[in-house]
Amino acid sequence: MGDAVAERNTSCLEASLQILTWARKLQAVAQTGLTYTKDAYDIERYRTLQQMAAEMMAASSIATAPANLVDLFKGEIGYATPKVDVRGAVFSQDRLLLVKERSDGGWTLPGGWADVGETPSFSVVREVKEESGYDVVARKIAAVYDRDLHGHPPTLYHTYKLFFLCELVGGSPQASHETEAVSFFPEDSIPPLSLSRVTPSQIAHLFEHHRHPEWPTSFD
User: Fold this and answer.
1) 182-194: per-residue pLDDT in tens?
2) pLDDT per residue as tens digits for the range 6-18
3) Residue 108: closest CA among 133, 129, 87, 130
4) 123, 127, 153, 163, 174 from 141: Cα distances, Å
5) 1 FRET partner, CA 20 to 30 A, in 93, 104, 150, 209?
6) Which residues have C-beta within 8 Å of that of residue 197, sequence separation ≥ 6?
7) Predicted structure pTM score
């Protein structure tokens, strides 16, 4: 009985993720279409696609109403592309810097969305400083991942995650409006993680990159 329930739950999750994938693609088509079309009938069709995408997302375990999603989509303009999340892996004496998120109480690598007008390396240096208080220099991109392929909980957006190895050059631990604690952890004592931001396998992979600086960048 237990195996049957687990198998059914797995099938439901896979179906939900597939619906989310289709919904994202529909939303991307609608957003891009609305960017370029001048025809009133096409605008109406793309708005209908946008509504369908919102309804599909709401049905795929994204806990919000379709109307709220449509309002969110209307703020997305231009050709639809993945969002970019940057994360900084900062080591000190073989311990990894993590920050504790106020939003969910989990720990993560400092980081966040890359900002328009900034290079990826500048964004990660800024994020590390804002969330941890430490000054770093970005030395290497350890990994470029498609968020959907690495065990994160589902989200509205298709996202690429850039993991940088960073060198600690100064500063001191300081929490922020987003983080409530800052600390370095050895590999065998990693605290509960904020899985929407980083996963145990990614943490393990970064420790391997730290031990093997000659490794090339990992990517999907």
Assistant:
1) 999 999 999 999 9
2) 566 566 667 777 8
3) 87
4) 13, 15, 24, 6, 25
5) 150
6) 85, 87, 101, 106, 108, 109, 111, 152
7) 0.77
